[in-house]
Design a protein that fits this description.
The complex is a heterotrimer of chains A (240), B (180) and C (394). Chain A is mainly α. Chain A has one domain (39-228): Cytochrome c-like domain (Cytochrome Bc1 Complex, Chain D, domain 2). Helices cover 43% and strands 6% of the residues of chain A. Chain A is built from 8 helices and 5 strands; from the N terminus they run ααβαβαααβββαα. In chain A, the strands form 2 sheets. A 3-stranded antiparallel β-sheet of chain A has the order 3-4-5, with no helix packed on it. In chain A, strands 1-2 form a two-stranded antiparallel sheet. Chain A starts with a helix and ends with a helix. By secondary structure, chain B is an alpha+beta fold. Chain B has 2 domains: 12-47; 53-179, Rieske Iron-sulfur Protein. In chain B, strand 7 and strand 8 (155-157) form a beta hairpin. Chain C is mainly alpha-helical and 394 residues long. Chain C has 2 domains: 38-214 and 232-281, Cytochrome Bc1 Complex, Chain C; 283-386, Helix Hairpins (Orthogonal Bundle). Chain C is 64% helix and 2% strand. Chain C has 15 helices and 2 strands. A two-stranded antiparallel sheet of chain C has the order 1-2. In chain C, helix 11 (288-296) packs across helix 12. The longest helix of chain C has 32 residues, at 183-214. The chains are: A mainly alpha (240), B alpha+beta (180), C mainly alpha (394). Chains in contact: A-B, A-C, B-C. The interface between A and C is large, with 47 and 58 residues.
Chain lengths: 240, 180, 394
């Protein structure tokens, strides 16, 4: 039974990821929020915020996010108030796009998803979002020509990462579309990286707290379990 | 079926006894400490959430309250009186600063930032009812048990034990106050 | 030596309500076989997992709103605004999966060592009932966040009831409280999701009552007669269970803090939309084997029957197994068949996660066939098997 059990455990853990997956995985990026003890890079968050508010928010909302939330990610109250004031918002106002749902439907033929949770709502999260933002192509590449003999459907754009390759969102990012406060050159790739990073924060503002707490609990549990094991051995010495 | 369990004999070897006691104490201490820490997030989860705390201040436009009128606004879910006092009310309140009838003596000066405006919680200090305008002191009377308050929000007749609380507030400009 | 005041107080109370004697009898002095392996830890772990689910659930219910317009947002409120809300929710979410892992191991142990055999048949029944209740509770709990998987999972699974002859359609509409999964459904699922764990708790009590009547089975599977074969539950099994709990909490914490979404599905972070079905609906991992059995049968009615029967057949397991020997250790034919049965469960789970097409259909049907065949050949196995010599005592 013991060997059987070990074997079962060894297969169980990967086996349980049955539920996830599907489709070709996007290229894995080296995100700083991965790992056991990450930290938010304030500069990158601010760059991502710039793209999110100046580009994404012309159509998308971040309905679970207000400027106040940034105070949990290294921004001071003064930072947050200044940023909010630039957008004519109070620090408790949610980041809602000016584009109404009805207008969106009229223009794009479908409703526009809220972005707060996007990195959690797609398989491969941030990697997928980054691949999508950098996966646009003018027209259909030769490789896929046979799939689109009549060209792209009306209102459709070619994207490598999007399932089925036809996406209703036009390419959102173009070089130098925003001016970064820190002088970083705003290439499409840079902006995609920054805004995806920002969206990871909007999706999981608790990420740092979660990972930090984990270290403490695990340390505690290792000691407690070791103590319990030593006591168990001691007590069970009496059983013959 | 046996109701006795004699498969083990507790060792009386002093080395075992002391080691066992040490480990039992350590494990118990660690376990109790861990369980206590584990209770913290559960207890904290019932305290006001971030969005509630963020709404802890309210801005009020007071330009539409004419002299002699009172406006009641909601701050943190409870009503607050904003009373635009007349000259006579101010004078009377100040004159009575030393009155022996005050149950909870306080100077009117200490209860207002701008003498024209009294800002006080509309919550009777007895059991939390909302006082109505009236009574014998240019102020309020509580419908629940008849406590009376004057134009400075001071209690003038029991059973309320103390004056109406003054919430923290500031004048952002002459016509706007921020409560909280 | 005079008695301390505490002792006197305890005696005073115990004379009137003998709760201390009861605890002493059933949790301290309670005779337990001394040869139990770590496989026997999973019973108490399951109890702890249940208590943790109830505890975290009670605190989540203080912030959750069972309304189709508010449910999804209220989960985000818990994750973002409520103090430590994310921790409590992750514990509840990961805890559900871990509860199933523990219970599956507990059931497997019972099957391997023949713990379902006389005189423990009713004990086994209570366990099967708990398992059914757990599945209902978990299913309704997964609907509460009101994401795409919540909604479509609820739609697909509740529609299964429409196979009931004559009244099926009416039953489904009655269960929904409307003409589709909607506000009424969500609200009642919340009510039942809160209620059922307490029902489980009550059945666990019966489960333990039956257990304590005839005591634990053991890895050798023989009836123990000598009092030297037993040791008191405390301190021997209390400390062993505490150690087991520590070991359990390590991967649990890891999942809660570093991979809370690993066992979930990204689609459930898209709010429920009755107009759009996700491309690929998969139930939670712990339902996958039974989902595979459902899909393996081409007929709707018989598919549902097969799925329910796949678990309900456990009720008659004590009578299907005709062998007098409990432990698989001494059963050269039963043991490999049982190991194959366990492996087959993994195959079913794997197929359950795949789209129902091509080779997966064939594999799913073969695996479903073996699942039932295993039970149905058990009477013969007992008849033809020649057990290895079973020791008379420990």
């Amino acid at each position: 039974m013991k060997t059987l059990f070990t074997l079962a455990l060894a297969t169980l853990i990967p086996a349980m990821s049955f539920a996830a997956g599907g489709g070709a995985a996007p290229v894995e990026q080296d995100w700083s929020f991965k790992g056991i003890t990450p930290d938010w890079d304030k500069e990158q968050l601010l760059r991502g915020y710039t793209v999110a508010t100046q580009v994404c928010m012309s159509c998308h909302s971040f309905k679970y996010i207000s400027h106040r939330n940034l105070m949990k990610a290294k921004f001071t109250e003064a930072d947050v108030k200044a940023l909010a004031a630039d957008m004519d918002l109070g620090i408790n106002d949610k980041l809602i796009s000016q584009l109404t749902a009805e207008d969106a439907k009229a223009v794009y033929g479908k409703s526009i998803p809220d972005l707060s949770l996007m990195n959690k709502a797609r398989g491969n999260g941030a990697d997928y979002v980054f691949a999508l933002l950098t996966g646009y192509e003018d027209g259909v590449p030769a490789k896929y020509a046979h799939d689109f003999e009549n060209g792209l459907p009306d209102g459709g754009y070619f994207n490598h990462a999007f399932p089925g390759h036809v996406i209703a969102m036009p390419q959102p990012l173009n070089d130098d579309q925003v001016e970064y406060r820190d002088g970083t050159s705003a290439t499409v790739e840079q902006m995609a990286k920054d805004v995806t990073y920002f969206m990871q924060w909007t999706a999981e503002p608790e990420l740092l707290a979660r990972k930090k707490l984990g270290v403490y609990i695990m340390l505690y549990l290792f000691i407690f379990t070791a103590l319990a094991y030593a006591l168990k051995r001691q007590i069970w010495k009496d059983v013959h | 079926m046996s109701e006795q369990a004699k498969g083990a004999k507790t060792s009386t070897n002093p080395k075992d006894v002391s080691r066992r006691k040490f480990l039992t104490d350590m494990t118990t201490a660690f376990g109790v400490a861990g369980a206590t820490c584990a209770a913290v997030p559960f207890v904290k989860s019932m305290a006001p959430a971030d969005n509630v705390k963020a709404m802890a201040s309210t801005e009020v436009d007071i330009s539409d309250i004419s002299e002699g009128d009172t406006k009641t606004v909601i701050w943190r879910g409870r009503p607050v009186f904003i009373k635009h006092r007349t000259g006579a009310e101010i004078a009377k309140a100040r004159k009575e600063d030393t009155s022996s009838e005050l149950l909870d003596p306080a100077k009117d000066e200490s209860r207002v930032q701008n003498e024209k405006w009294l800002i006080a919680m509309a919550v009777c200090t007895h059991l939390g009812c909302v006082p109505m305008e009236g009574g014998e002191h240019d102020g309020w009377i509580c419908p629940c048990h008849g406590s009376q308050f004057d134009a400075s929000g001071r209690v003038r007749r029991g059973p309320a034990p103390s004056n109406l609380d003054v919430p923290p507030y500031e004048f952002l400009n002459p016509t706007t106050i921020k409560i909280g | 030596m005079s008695k301390s005041n505490t002792q006197k107080a305890i005696e005073w109370f115990d004379y009137r309500l003998p709760i201390f004697s009861f605890m002493k009898h059933s949790a301290v002095e309670y005779p337990t076989p001394k040869n139990l392996s770590y496989m026997w830890n999973f019973g108490s772990l399951a109890g702890i997992a249940l208590v943790l689910q109830i505890l975290t659930g009670i605190f989540l219910a203080m912030h959750y709103k069972p309304d189709v317009n508010l449910a999804f947002d209220s989960i985000q409120h818990i994750m973002r605004d409520v103090n430590s809300g994310w921790l409590i929710r992750n514990m509840h979410m990961v805890g559900a999966s871990f509860f199933f892992i523990v219970v599956y191991i507990h059931m497997a142990r019972g099957m391997y060592y023949g713990s379902y055999k006389g005189p423990r048949e009713v004990l086994w029944w209570m366990g099967v009932i708990i398992f059914f209740l757990m599945m209902a509770t978990a299913f309704m709990g997964y609907v509460l966040p009101w994401g795409q998987m919540s909604f479509w999972g609820a739609t697909v699974i509740t529609n299964l009831l429409s196979v009931i002859p004559f009244v099926g359609e009416h039953v489904v509409i009655w269960l929904w409280g409307g003409y589709s999964v909607g506000d009424a459904t969500l609200n009642r699922f919340f009510s039942l999701h809160y209620l059922l764990p307490f029902v489980i708790f009550a059945v666990v009590f019966l489960h333990l009552w039956a257990l304590h009547t005839h005591k634990s089975n053991n890895p050798v599977g023989i009836d123990l007669k000598k009092d030297t074969d037993f040791i008191p539950f405390h301190p021997y099994y209390t400390i062993k269970d505490i150690f087991g709990l520590g070991v359990y909490l390590i991967p649990f914490t890891f999942m809660v803090c570093y991979a809370p979404e690993y066992l979930g599905h990204p689609d459930n972070y898209i709010p429920a939309d009755p107009m759009v079905t996700p491309a690929h609906i998969v139930p939670e991992w712990y339902f996958l084997p039974f989902y595979a059995i459902l899909r393996a049968v081409p007929d709707k009615l018989f598919g549902v029957i097969a799925m329910v029967a796949a678990i309900a057949i456990l009720f008659v397991l004590p009578w299907l197994d005709s062998s007098k020997v409990r432990s698989a250790r001494f059963r050269p034919l039963f043991r490999p068949l049982l190991i194959l049965f366990f492996a087959n469960m993994f195959v079913l789970g794997w197929v359950g996660a795949k789209p129902p097409e091509g080779i997966y259909i064939t594999i799913g049907r073969l695996a479903t066939f073996y699942h039932f065949a295993f039970f149905l050949i058990l009477p013969l196995v007992g008849m033809f098997e020649k057990p290895k010599p079973v020791p008379k005592s420990l």
